From TrEMBL:
Residues of the active site: K37 (proton acceptor), Y256 (proton acceptor)
Role noted for this protein: Catalyzes the interconversion of L-alanine and D-alanine. May also act on other amino acids.
GO cellular component, one term: cytosol
Domain Alanine racemase C-terminal: 235-356
Catalytic activity entry: L-alanine = D-alanine
Protein name: Alanine racemase
One Gene Ontology MF term: alanine racemase activity
Organism: Candidatus Xianfuyuplasma coldseepsis
Amino acid sequence: MNRYRETYAEINLKHLYHNLKSIQKIVHPKTVIPVVKADAYGHGAVEVVRYLIDKGIDYFAVSLLEEALELRRVYPNIELLCMGIIENEGLLIASENNITVTMSNFNQLQNCPKLSKTLKIHLKVDTGMNRLGFKSDHDIKEVIDEIQKNEKFFLEGIFTHFSTADENISYYKKQLNRFDDIFTNLNFKFKMIHVSNSSSQIQFEKDLPWTTHTRLGISLYGLTYIDHIKFLKNTFTLKTKISQLNRLTAGEFVGYGASYESSGQEIIAVLPIGYADGFIRKNTGGFVEINHKRYPIVGRICMDMTFVKVDESVQLHDEVILFGGLISIDEVADRLDTINYEVICQISKRVPRIYKK
Ligand SMILES: Cc1ncc(COP(=O)(O)O)c(C=O)c1O
C-alpha cells in the first residue's frame, strides 16, 4: 500500500536476531522457540518469521489457530505450535495444516472430530497459574492414556507456563517444583519439554537439565523486567514527522475540550498520529523526541493527531520519535501505568511497519 503519511513503526530485524542469538547462547543446548503471537507482539509476524527462517529458525509459537494459518499459508514447511485453546473443527483444520495444538482440558479431547491426518499435541500442565492446562496427577495420567488410544494423535510435547518469573521467584520455584514432580512421575517419553518464558529462561534455564526448548516472547523484542540485563536491543521505534506548526500567544487553547491553554508565546507542533493508531489519549503529559531533545505532549490526543509543545529550533517535517529512542518503551509503559507488552501490541494496523534489515 502507498504511504501518504509519515507515521510508521521501524522494526529492526537485526536487533531482533541479536536478541534471539544472545538468549540462544544462554539457554544452549536447548532450542529457543520464538513466540510470534499477536502479530509478533505488534512487529508483523509474517515479516519477522520470514527473517528468522532465513536465519535457520524453523519452529514458532502463536496463540490462535488463525495466527498459525496465516503463517502456514506463506510458509508451508515450518513447525507451528498454537498455545491457546483449539476446539472442535479447529482441531481438524490444525491436523490438515500440520499445526501442533495444545491440549488443555478434556472438553477439547472429547469433542475432537474424526481426523484423517495426524494431530501433533503438546500437553499443557497447570502448575499454578490457573489459566490453561491439566492440574491433578490423576487428570494428567488419564489424558495421556486417552491421547494414546487415538492413532491419529501424536503426543509430542509437554509444557507449563509461569505466572511470576519476572517478579516473584518463590512462586516461580513452586510452579517449577510442581512441574518437576508431575514430570518425573510420568511414564512417558516426550520429544519436547518446555517451561520457560523470556524472564525465566534468561535467569534460570541453565538449572533445568531436563527441558528441550524454551519459548521466547518479549525479550525477542528487546524488552525485559530483569534489571541487570543490558544486552537486549530495541526492535520497535514509533516515528512520525511534524505536519504543522502553530504559533500561539498567551491565553489560546489547543485541541478538543480546549484543555490546554498557552501561557505565553508558544509553538505547538501537530503530529499525524492519534488514538486510532494506538497512541492512546493517556499519553498526554508524556514526552516525544525531536532532534535528540524531549518535548511534552499537550492537550487531548485526537483520533488522528497529537499536539506537542516545541521551541524555535524545531522545523516543519522534523522527525519525531514517539518511543524506541530517547524515550523508551518502558518509559511509555510507566506513563500509561501498564506493561511494555501492551505498549507495542496496541499500536494498530493503521501504522505501517517498515523493516530495517
Ligand atoms: C504460553 C506462553 N508461553 C510463552 C509466552 C511468552 O512469554 P514472554 O513474552 O514473557 O516471553 C507467552 C506469552 O504470554 C505465553 O502465553
